[in-house]
């Protein structure tokens, strides 16, 4: 039987809070994990990805994949693929580009604009949805698989109960 989804809400009043969340998430990334990053342009998807990638030990630049579609990082033994499908005109471009091969047990995949590859991109373990909230942001996290739930529970533990609230997702 499918266990109930885990959801949590994190208040991110400034960019530093987004960076802290990314840094807390980085050590929880395990091979095979797929994370969708949702939210409007400027919501902070790339900022959050950049914080994770830097916290994993990458010292070079972390470019937005908006034009390249994917940026590849090999960090110690971990492959990390950072995608951005904003420029897709149809979801089939995902298959045409051969991106399905990137989603495997050895890699972490971070996906901005997954909705533009809907039906072609594999399902996520964790969905992180960023919203503008005044000058800051709010992040809603939904874990869809046991792997995503383990990651989100650990994130809630790491950041403390004050910045998050865990509750069963509505079905
Ligand atoms: P996206 O990838 O979602 O289009 P970016 O990460 O490229 O967005 O840009 C987000 C912008 O918002 C950046 O200028 C960043 O400094 C800023 N930002 C990120 N997180 C926060 C936050 N919690 N509060 C205020 N500004 C933020
Ligand atoms: Mg972006």
What does this structure look like?
The chain has 171 residues and is of the alpha/beta class. The chain has one domain: Rossmann fold (3-Layer(aba) Sandwich), CATH 3.40.50. 23% of the residues lie in helices and 29% in strands. It has 4 helices and 8 strands. It has an 8-stranded mixed β-sheet with strand order 3-4-5-2-6-7-1-8. α1 packs across α2. The longest helix has 14 residues. The chain is globular, with a radius of gyration of 15 Å.
What labels would you give this structure?
171 residues, Rossmann fold, 4 helices, 8 strands, disordered C terminus, binds adenosine-5'-diphosphate, binds magnesium ion
Short description:
The protein is an alpha/beta fold. The chain has four helices and eight strands.
SSE inventory with pairings:
Layout: E1 6-12, H1 15-25, E2 34-38, H2 45-55, E3 70-75, E4 78-84, H3 93-96, E5 107-112, E6 126-133, E7 136-143, H4 146-159, E8 166-168
Bound molecules: adenosine-5'-diphosphate and magnesium ion.
Bin the helical content. Answer: 10-25%
Residue fraction in strands? 25-35%
Output the helix-strand order.
EHEHEEHEEEHE
- C-alpha-based Rg, rounded: 15 Å
- Uncertain segments are 161-171
Hetero groups in this structure are: adenosine-5'-diphosphate, magnesium ion
Number of domains: 1
Please provide the count of β strands. Answer: 8
Mean pLDDT: 92
**Helix-strand makeup class:** alpha/beta
């Amino acid at each position: 039987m499918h266990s109930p989804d885990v959801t949590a809400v994190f208040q991110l009043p400034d960019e530093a809070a987004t960076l802290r969340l990314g840094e807390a998430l980085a050590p929880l990334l395990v091979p095979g994990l797929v994370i969708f990053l949702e939210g409007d342009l400027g919501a902070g998807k790339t900022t959050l990805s950049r914080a994770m990638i830097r916290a994993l030990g990458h010292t070079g630049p972390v470019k937005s994949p908006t034009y390249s579609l994917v940026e590849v990082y090999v960090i110690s033994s971990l492959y990390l693929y950072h995608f951005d499908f904003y420029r897709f005109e149809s979801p089939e471009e995902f298959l045409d580009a051969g991106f399905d091969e990137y989603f495997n047990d050895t890699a972490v995949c971070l996906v901005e604009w997954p909705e533009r590859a809907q039906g072609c991109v594999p399902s996520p373990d964790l969905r992180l949805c960023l919203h503008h909230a005044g000058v800051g942001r709010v992040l809603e996290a939904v874990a869809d698989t046991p792997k995503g739930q383990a990651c989100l529970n650990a994130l809630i533990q790491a950041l403390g109960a004050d910045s998050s609230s865990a509750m069963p997702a509505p079905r």
